[in-house]
Design goal:
41% helix, disordered C terminus, homodimer, 12 helices, six-stranded mixed β-sheet, Rossmann fold, DNA-binding, 434 Repressor (Amino-terminal Domain)
DNA sequence: GAACGAGTTGGAACCGGTTCCAGACTTTGC
DNA sequence: GCAAAGTCTGGAACCGGTTCCAACTCGTTC
């Protein structure tokens, strides 16, 4: 292994000069700089990351913590984080917490010590724990908001509004919501938005309940939607929507002729299934990129952390269509479970 | 920030003793060890990773390089790598190369300097470049084999055999292969296997050509399959198979009644689409885990690198069925493009 | 009672860089 | 022509750990 010492010796300069030349610092003559650079190149010198990190105190690394790397939602964010980090000369240390809030906290602690900043994507830990970690000032959140930490989230309320407006415009009166986990921050956002949007006198959205945010959760929700006589189902995310689609098909209900389905997130597969899914597209990669930039912005201490909400957009595909003509004018479900 | 020096001072022992106590080394009295440990805990001591790395020469980090994090194939491998690394007390530095062979080489160089070992998943770089990097002895390959580096790959030949046998058993005589990129190592493996398996006198498999390994590639292949009168299509991977499925549906061909479709990899969505995809399941997460273990096994220098092939398994779902009764006994395609 | 050895202990060197500081040299201004 | 200012340069301290080595303690054995 060739060290800076070797380069300095070969170039006939001191360690200090060699260091300055290579780190592009001032106080080196043009000739010396050039010479050192060439010598380093010839010797194949590669700076020792740990050594540099030890003195400078910076690791040139960002950490990324996600609940599940194999979930396309998080994978897309990870791709954005990774791309932006590379552009800014940093590497990415990634950790998958297997959707486990306890493991997540552990991981945040361990990873936090090794990076300049940490991007937490959809953290599962409770708010108070999150606040503790946020206090370090080196944390940025994605898809969750919390008082102490800067965050990138999505304009979920607007997405819900667009989705419901779309369905209403198609004549759907019996719209149902297949919700995500109660503990989920983003499910709470959707529900709040639904409660607001339905106040317009056009009728309420039926709450089918909370389901696991998976294909299986969607299967479960689909039966409830059929039983309730809904002609349209708005889903917590695309995975749930895919489950709804599959189950409706299996039960002989046609999509979109009999029942319309709307997803959330616009994951890659949403466009590839048949019928292609109408869904609310959220800029996942962009969120990852901006979260990385948020980490660099720790310039002004005690400034209130930035909460940025990225715009979303309903993408209309083949899973939504006008409500069937003879759809029931009266609701069959218990009014108790309506979202307010 | 609390350093080892602080702990030593607070515990009333020397730096050396404190270090030994915390790294669980011998030559510390039980009393002292206990006392140091407690003091460190009270002070909230966290070892400084860069400092430790500087002296020990080990980074407790593995690097992972993948062409595309958002591709579920690589995401699954990444999850395995991540899990195994955590179990063995290491972190994962991940890099996404955007399917770019040039960027990949660059990334391997930069990442390589910061990790103890590097897992290269489906590397796109040419063999000679791969050999150069493999010479460092700290590289493990996934889904590709090369002379100089240990690797984890899949028993693709067996997968192809199982898939073709399945289709033959269903009475399909006109089986077509929708191939992946010519430069792909794993496409070459599939073709070699196809050439071998079709020699059994049961007829050849028609080569539809090479397609981008995406949904779009599958759409393209589907039209060629229909034109060639194939009753079954074996696809390079699941993404291509999904494209084939979608296009067949759009063109009014029913799956599996008219045309059967088989994928490769058993990505998560394969089971979720309608009809559910028959596909060759490969143990992706396991491959990631074992690749990490391969990195630790640099014990015997100059030992020939291990090439391990993990078993695969055909998963029969709803996209394959007996060949239609009246399928043409004669082939309409040019015999030149048959795989040999 | 002295020699011996095993078990502990702390001082100091070291890992590979960055940066402060003092000194040498060059340029500029009056 | 000389002082002041500025530019380069290299020695050395330092970052926070690990580990070598010498010294020291104590119990054991002859």
């Amino acid at each position: 292994m060739v060290t800076l010492r070797d380069v300095a010796r070969a170039a006939g300069v001191s360690l200090a000069t060699a260091s300055r030349a290579l780190s592009d610092a001032p106080h080196v003559s043009a000739g010396n700089r050039e010479h050192v650079l060439r010598t380093a190149d010839e010797l194949g010198y590669r700076p020792h990351h740990a050594a540099r990190s030890l003195t400078t105190g910076s690791t040139a690394t960002v950490g990324l913590v996600v609940p599940d790397l194999a979930n396309p939602f998080f994978a897309a964010v990870a791709k954005g984080v990774q791309a932006r980090a590379r552009e800014t000369g940093r590497e990415v240390l990634v950790a998958d917490t297997d959707e486990d809030a306890t493991l997540e906290q552990d991981v945040v602690g361990r990873l936090g010590a090794r990076v300049d900043g940490l991007v937490l994507c959809s953290p599962r830990m409770p708010s108070d724990a999150l606040a503790t970690h946020a206090a370090s000032g080196r944390v940025a959140l994605v898809n969750r908001e919390a008082p102490g930490a800067p965050s990138i989230s999505f304009d979920i309320a607007d997405g819900v509004r667009q989705a419901v407006a779309h369905l209403r415009a198609l004549g759907h009166r019996d719209v149902a919501y297949a919700g995500g986990p109660r503990s989920s921050w983003s499910d709470a956002e959707r529900r709040t938005a639904l409660a607001g949007v339905t106040g317009g006198g056009t009728g309420d959205v039926l709450d089918l309940g909370s389901f696991r945010p998976t294909h299986g959760g969607g299967v479960q929700a689909a039966d409830l939607a059929l039983a309730a006589g809904a002609t349209a189902v708005l889903c917590f995310n695309d995975l749930v929507a895919l489950g709804v689609l599959a189950r409706l098909h299996a039960r002989g209900a046609r999509t979109p002729q009999d029942v319309s389905v709307v997803g959330f997130d616009d994951v890659a597969t949403a466009a590839l299934v048949t019928p292609a899914l109408t869904t609310v597209a959220v800029p996942l990669a962009r969120a990852g990129r901006e979260a990385v930039d948020l980490l660099g912005a720790g310039a002004i201490p005690d400034a209130p952390p930035a909460h940025r909400r990225l715009p979303v957009e309903l993408v209309v595909r083949a899973s939504t269509a006008p409500a069937p003509a003879g759809s029931s004018p009266t609701r069959t479900a218990d009014p108790e479970v309506v979202i307010r």
